[in-house]
Structure formats: C-alpha cells, structure tokens
Amino acid sequence: MSSLLLLQSNMLFPKVLTRAFSSTTMVQLRARALIYTQYGEPIDVLKVHSYELPQVGTNQLLLQHLAAPINPSDINQVQGVYPSKPPLTTDLGTDEPAAVGGNEGVFQVLEVGSGVEGYSKGDWVIPADVNYGTWRTHSVADSSKMLKLPKEKLSLNQAATIAVNPCSAYQMLNYYESLKPGDWFIQNAGNSQVGRAAIQIGKKMGLNSISIVRNRDNLQELVDELTELGATHVITEEQNESREFGATIKSWTKGSPIKLGLNAVGGSNCTALARKLANDATLLTYGGMSMKPVIIPTGLLIFKNLNVKGFWVTANIKRIPNSRQDSINEVIKLMDTGAIVDTPNSDNFFELKDSDESLLKTFQTALTNSKKGKQIVLFE
Amino acid sequence: MSSLLLLQSNMLFPKVLTRAFSSTTMVQLRARALIYTQYGEPIDVLKVHSYELPQVGTNQLLLQHLAAPINPSDINQVQGVYPSKPPLTTDLGTDEPAAVGGNEGVFQVLEVGSGVEGYSKGDWVIPADVNYGTWRTHSVADSSKMLKLPKEKLSLNQAATIAVNPCSAYQMLNYYESLKPGDWFIQNAGNSQVGRAAIQIGKKMGLNSISIVRNRDNLQELVDELTELGATHVITEEQNESREFGATIKSWTKGSPIKLGLNAVGGSNCTALARKLANDATLLTYGGMSMKPVIIPTGLLIFKNLNVKGFWVTANIKRIPNSRQDSINEVIKLMDTGAIVDTPNSDNFFELKDSDESLLKTFQTALTNSKKGKQIVLFE
Hints:
- Chains A, B: It is found in: Mitochondrion.
- Chains A, B: This is enoyl-[acyl-carrier-protein] reductase.
- Chains A, B: Its EC number is 1.3.1.104.
- Chains A, B: One of its GO terms (biological process) is fatty acid biosynthetic process.
- Chains A, B: It is an enzyme of class 1 (oxidoreductase).
- The structure is a homodimer.
- By secondary structure, the first copy, chain A, is an alpha/beta fold.
- Chain A folds into 2 domains: 3-155 and 344-378, Quinone Oxidoreductase, Chain A, domain 1; 165-316, Rossmann fold (3-Layer(aba) Sandwich).
- The first copy, chain A, is 33% helix and 23% strand.
- Chain A has helices at residues 3-8, 14-20, 42-45, 72-79, 156-160, 165-174, 193-204, 219-229, 237-241, 245-253, 267-276, 298-302, 313-319, 323-336, 359-369, and strands at residues 30-36, 47-52, 60-70, 99-100, 106-112, 124-127, 138-142, 146-149, 184-187, 208-213, 233-236, 258-263, 282-285, 294-296, 307-310, 349-353, 374-378.
- In chain A, the strands form 3 sheets. In chain A, strands 3, 5, 6, 7, 8, 16 and 17 form a 7-stranded mixed sheet that branches. A 6-stranded parallel sheet of chain A has the order 11-10-9-12-13-15, sandwiched between helices.
- In chain A, helix 7 (193-204) links the parallel strand 9 (184-187) and strand 10.
- Chain A is elongated.
- The model of chain A is unreliable at 1-27 (pLDDT under 50).
- The A-B interface holds A 83, 266, 271, 285-288, 293-312, 315, 319 and B 83, 266, 271, 285-288, 293-312, 315, 319.
- Strand 14 of chain A pairs antiparallel with strand 14 of chain B, so a sheet runs across the interface.
C-alpha cells in the first residue's frame, strides 16, 4: 500500500487520509453516515450510523466523501415529500431499514478495484445518478455509478455542487428555447446559486438577462456583484411588480422579445415575471420559494401563447438521454475558462467543517442555516 | 336573371330572397351592418349603418348573410380588449372609420362573379379568416376569402357556428396530445358548446371523458343529456374540488392516465382539474369564465411535468397551416354522420330573428342574453 504515501502527499486533505488509513487494514475502515429510518423534519429524524465498509469488489471504487451540499430537495426527501427518493434498506447493517441523506457531493478515490479502468487513486468523482446518499464519510460503489471530474479544473465547492445548480441553469438556458446571442431572458431568485449560474452561462452565450432579487439594505452591492458576473440588469421584486416599471424594461429590450423566464419563487413575483415575456415564450418553474403557486392570467396563455412548464434536473436524467453528463461537461468547460466563477464567499454560500464528534451537529447547523443560502459540509 | 326564380324556390329562406331582390337592379341592393366607430360596451357603441353594396367583381361573390352567432371574443373585440381585431376603415362609406362586428357566420351565395369557379348561387359559405364582420345582412367578397360548406349536411345553426366551437374542440383533442382509444381527458365548462363538441368528438375518437359542470336544480337532466352525447362521467364543480372525490375518479380511470385537460374557467376549478392530470399531461386553457387566473401548484409543474398552454383557434390559423380548413372538414364529417348532433334547443343555445326595424335591438337583446348561452341571430 505504498500509494497511500503518495496520496498522503496530497495537501488538500491530509487529515482525511490520515484518518482513513489509521485502521490496521482496509477492511476495518469504518464509515459514518447520516441516515434516516423514517420520514420527518431532518433535524429530528437524522442520526449517525457508524459501520464497517465492505471489501472493494473487482469493479468497484473505495471513495472518501470530501464535501456535500444541502439542497432543498435533500430536505424534502428526508421529509418524505419529494417524489424521488431512495428505498429504505438494511444494506448498511442498520437494525431498521434506512437511507443515507444527500444527493450531491464530490468524492475522492481511495482504492480502485482490479477490474476498473479509467480511474486512479486521488481522482474526484460524483454520483452518476440521484439518491446515492452523499451525507457520509466513505462509500464503496461500482465505478459505473460514478462520473469522473477533472479535479485540476474545479474548486472543491464547484465539484460538490456541479450536478444540480449550474447544470440546472445550463439545461434551462439550452434545452427549452433556441436562444441566440442578443436574445433576452428574465429570472427571479437572481441571487441564488442557480440564478448566479444562469447569469454567467447566459453571459457566455451572449444573452441579455434581467435578474429579479429581493430588496435589501445593501442592494447596490448585490447589483454590482451580479453585474460583475454578467447580469445585464438587476431589478427588485417591487420593480418587477410595478406596472410603471414595465416601460423601463421595454426601453432596455428595445422591442427584442424576452423568450425565456426562469421562476423559483411563484406567487405575484412569478405572475409579474410572466407578463414581461414575449409571445410564444417559455416560463420554466424550478422552485417555489414563496410557497405560493404559479398564477398565470388567462390572456397570457391564450393570446401570448406562453408555454408554462416545470424544470426538474432529476427527471431530465431519464427524459433527455445524456443530459446529466452533457451538462456537467459543458459546465466544467465554463468553470475551467472562468466563465463560471467560484462564489464560496458570497452571502449565500456557507462552508461547514465536520469534525469527528459532531457529524450530526454539523449537519443540524447546516440544515438550520440552509434558508440563508447554500450550505456545504466538508467531511474531515 | 332567371336563376333568381330558382333561388326563390329554395324554401329555407324565401323571405330573404324576396327582400334581396326587391330592388329594381342589383347595384341598388342595400345592406345593413352592425358597426362600431369606437371601442366600448357593444350595447353602447354598436349602431346600424345602411349602405349600398358595390358591384360584384370578376372574382367576387355577392353574399346574403343568413345567421351569425355572438361569441365572447366578438364582444371583447368590440370592447377593444381582444388582441385580434379588424382595422377601422371608411370602406363602407361611413363618416368615421368603422368596423363591422362579428367573426363567424354562414352566408348564401346570391351572385357569382364571372371569373369565379367552384361556386354556384345558393351555396353556403363561411369566411376563410377571422375579422370578416359577419354582423350584416349582405356583403361582397373575393371568393378566395370564403370556404364552401356542404349545406345538405349541416343545419343552419351548425353552419353558422362551425368555425369556432366545434373546431376548437376538434383541434384541442387532436393537435396537442396523441390520444388513443381508451385514453382519458377531463374538461370544465362541460355544458358549453365547446364542451359538448369535445364530448362528442372524444366519444367518436374512443376517448373517455370527465366533464365538470356547475351544480343546478335539474343536474340529473344535464348529466343525462351529456351522457347521451357520449360523456363517460359528468361531475359537479364541488366534486371536482373535493379531495375525497379524487378516489372516485381513480376508481373510474383504474390507473389509466388522464392525458389532457381543457380549461375554460380558471380559478380553483382549474387548479382542481390540473390535480387530476397524469405526469406529462397537457392543460389547455381556452377561456376564463370565472375571471380568475390559472393557478398551478409548483409541484404539478416540477414533479408532474404538466405542460400548461393556451389554445386560441384564431392563432392556430397562422400557427398550424390548414388548421382551419382541416378541422372544418373533419367537423363536417362528424356532423354528417351524426357523431356531432345539432343542439339548438339546449338550454344554452338561443336563436333570435332579426326583423327589418330592429337589427340593432335584436343584437342588443342577444348581447344581453349571451351570458346565458350561445346566441344566434338569423338575418331576415
């Protein structure tokens, strides 16, 4: 096991590797996982399960989980209200059937099965599909269930959150309307991770964008920040919902159609957004942060012929062949060239470090904070 | 002009023809039209304009208007709130620019220009496009602007209303989802003319249907009537909006997906209708009788992937080549075989007869009554 020494020289996660191999043999490596045996509020039902990892099979990889985000869908999954969810099983040796929380995250390869090609120790991988259970310290998986990332091109945060937010933004801008340079789109939740990715991807595509954000004391700071990312215009929810402000928007677009709307809010915000759209435009809903439904005046459907649809990156995995791999590849390119920048220090992105005693506590803090912005847990 | 005698022997409209030719020569034939020179409530702004008809040109037809309905869109057009409207012009010799009301109606050919082929005196025609101005007693038009109907196959009411309601039902059932025999659709406004046409066309296509109607004292009579037309199930708005009743509907469909929803109501009725739809189903909105918007819970868009669209038969004329002619042809076949029956005596279908003194009064009565159901004006 001399390669361990090489891996230990990787300066990114020295502690990880020291811990992972402090056991006398590989088979004794223990993992800790954040599991649930019944649906409910994550803070109530999640608990830590410690278990021995299985031997690495011929076609398998031993994986050290490096970092995992908490997405709203992860929370809904634990609550039992999300349509896509992993089965509860006793595969991890739990007394009761259980599932591991989390769907997204980046892992480092610790050991490669003898029959696996194309992977080396130290590679970064992410799950090829949803429902993997990323909220754990280690796992063993068939190599076919993983996608390899170019670790030299991505930050840890980017790698841990590549599959959902930026890929959602990429797919929404590319799979629904045929947008050409100079075309316009409008979105709410402009300051969310999807919103920021859409601004940047749109900029790279030559699109003009209008991003709606919540008003705040330091609004100009946020406007400057999003403009720096590539936003053409940033407006408040109040401006979006003001009839008078419509003239300002028309003076910006100068008659060019706003062909696409991205909605993660719902309610009156979404209705006002829909009114900005051109004839035959598409309104994609990927979230409902206001907890209010999508409300569309009849005339916008009949006379403007709006196409009102939902967007769910998880469903697209099956619905659009290769959508996950294709969009990850495109997003990697955009991150590599700096078209999508890492924003871990923004006011809606928080890193938390797991420590030995407090995996549960770390996640509970992250879950509590997750309304403020994206929480990323780094496993130690 | 011996053919006039032949026409006079047509027993359907003896008075029409007597009047039309009481003038000493054709050029002196006068028409009366219901015009508006400004937008507003039809009852306020409509007035009668009497004018001399032009000579019939080489490629033209002289037309006796027989019957015209009052559609909600006709009213909205006069109000100035309908996106499709005819220009106001002085073509009819009015002092101020004016337009003639009405978009739908059936006309009888009185005279055929020397260069016109395929038309004979006595033929029934309808306008090939919208904004023709059907609320008048006579007109002269290029033959290319008309579509010929097989008068032997249709009642006058059917011919006068063929282009909007049954064609809307036909297009909604055929152009948006690929429905096969045994498939299900659900609609509100089941007792409207579109609703009745959809029931009958759906039955002919082998589809199962659920029609939502307003509760009423004689509900069972209406249920029986719609069932007779071919409705699989007829339910009330209260049943549609009851969570418990969902189980009854599931017991009917036995797991078969409800692939299409037709909405002419909006509000909570439409939301409850949308909840009945299967994954990937289409919800088409063609009206908003409740004056409330279309309200769709976020989850139905994201997780059920509903496609929420509008339907406008007028826009389809341009959007889907030949849609008007194709759907008229199909509807004619269905009427000819009795698959779509004439329902002039139903409680939402009213005929009114124009008389010489009171064209304006007749329309005013029809306009006032038009909330109760379809009004048809027969020109005398």
